Amino acid sequence: MSVPGLSINFATVRQLGDFGAIVDGCLKHGITAISPWREHIHAVGLDEAARIVKANGLTVTGVCRGGFFPAPDETGRRAAIDENLRCIDEAAALGADCLVMVVGGLPKGSKDIKGARAMVADGLAAILPHARAAGVPIAIEPLHPFYAADRACVNMLGQALDLCDALGDGIGVAIDVYHVWWDPDLDAEIARAGAGGRILAHHICDWLVPTVHVLNDRGMMGDGVIDLKRFRAMIEAAGFHGAQEVEIFSEVWGAKPGDEVLATCVERFRTAC
Amino acid sequence: MSVPGLSINFATVRQLGDFGAIVDGCLKHGITAISPWREHIHAVGLDEAARIVKANGLTVTGVCRGGFFPAPDETGRRAAIDENLRCIDEAAALGADCLVMVVGGLPKGSKDIKGARAMVADGLAAILPHARAAGVPIAIEPLHPFYAADRACVNMLGQALDLCDALGDGIGVAIDVYHVWWDPDLDAEIARAGAGGRILAHHICDWLVPTVHVLNDRGMMGDGVIDLKRFRAMIEAAGFHGAQEVEIFSEVWGAKPGDEVLATCVERFRTAC
Lengths: 273, 273
Prior knowledge:
Chain A has 273 residues and is of the alpha/beta class. Chain A has helices at 19-28, 38-44, 46-55, 74-93, 113-134, 157-167, 177-180, 186-195, 228-237, 251-254, 258-271, and strands at residues 6-9, 33-35, 59-60, 63-67, 99-102, 138-140, 171-176, 199-204, 244-246.
C-alpha cells in the first residue's frame, strides 16, 4: 500500500544504514518520496544515488543541505559559495524539488547578526544564477531562533520571504513546523508565501513539552503541541500540495529500529497530520 | 564604591541565601538595585522584605513574577488572575518599578496557541485596573520562542507592544537581551517601545555558543554573542535610563560562590555592557 504525500528525511531513520538501505526501508512501507542528506549521497556516490532514485521512481522532496554562508573572511565566504554550487549540481542530478538552505549563523568571534544576515543575502545572490540554470529551486529554511547564533540567522518565515522578494525567481522557503509553529504572524506569512509561489517544502515533526535536549529531542507527529492538521490546512490553502516530509532529530527515535520508526511515521501521518 | 545602573536579579545569586543575605551581598559590592522573586519575599515575609528595601534605600527594578494566565478552564483562569492581584500588592509594598509578567504557555492538553494568547490578553486586561490603582506598572516580558509552549506564548517584542497598545496605560515591556537579541525587527521595536514609553526593565546576561542546557545555561555578560553595548545604546536612545538588571540562570554560575558571581557581574557590567 502506498502512502502518497509522505516523504522521509534520511535524518529520521539514519539507523537504517546507507542511501540504498534507507530507500529500501521506505519502499517496504509504500513511501516513495525521500529527502537525503549530502553525506548519504556522497557515501554511495552521486551516480549511484541518482540511479536508485530513477530506478525506483522516487520523488526527492529536497536535498539537505546547502547554506552556512557567513565566514570571518572573504576566503571563507568564497569557499562556502563554491560548496553551495556543488550542492546545486548534486540536487540537479537527483532531480530534487529543492535544495534546502540552512543559511548559517554568526561567523566565529562575531556578535554582528546583521552582518551575518547580509552575508547570507550576498551568498544566496551569488549562487542563485547557477541554481536557476540548473533548474534547482533554492529553499531557505528559517530555523528556530534557538539556532540563530550557530546554525541559521534567518529565523522567521517573514524574514525568509523578505529575502526571497529581494532575490527574485528561483528561491523560496522550506517551512518546518518545528521552527515556526510559535510565530505570531504564522498564518499571514504562510498565505504570503503561497501567494508568491514560494513554498517549496513542508517539514513535519512535533514540539515536545518538555523539550529536554537542545538538538535531538524533536517529537513524532502527534506527541507534541503543534496543531499539525491546522498547519497542513494552511499550507494547502496557500497552494502547496507537495509531500509532507518527516524530519525528526531525536535520541529517542534514533534508538528504535528504523522499521518501527517508519511504521510510526506512516500511522501518525494518517492520524495526526 | 557604588555601582549605579546595575541591578541584581535574585535568581543570579540564589546561592547566597534569603532576601536579607542577598541584599547584604549586593550592598557589599555597592549594588543598591535589586529584583527579588516572590519566593524570596514570601520566605521572609512581605513586611520584612519591605523594611529591608526601605532601610537600605534600595531600588527594586522589578518583582518576579506574575503571569501564567492560560488555564484549561474558567476556574483556573480566575485563580491565575487572583494570584496576579496578590503579586501586584506585593510589588506595591516594595515600591517596585514594575511587576514582571511571564505570561504562561499553552494550557495543559492544548495545541491552540492563539487561544492561549487570547487568554493572556484577557488576564492582563483583568488585572490592569488594580495595577494602575496600586501604581505598579505591568511589564510583559517576551520570552524566547523556545518557551512558547510551557512558559510564555508572548515571544516577540512587537507582539508584546501590540498587546500594550490594545490595553492602554500602565503596561509596558521588560526587555531581556537573552530572549530578543535575535529578533530581525529588534531595532525598530526597541525604538517603538521607547516612543510609547513602554520600556520598564532591561535585563542582561549573554547567549553562549554552544548553549548546552535548555533552561540553565545563560552566560555572564561578555561570554557570549550578544552585542550588549549596542543593545544598551539602543535602549538608551529609546529613552530608558533605568538600571540594567542581571538575570542569569546557570548551573555554572549557580555553583560558584555568590560573592564571586557578584564581583564578576560588577566587572562585566563595567567592561562588557
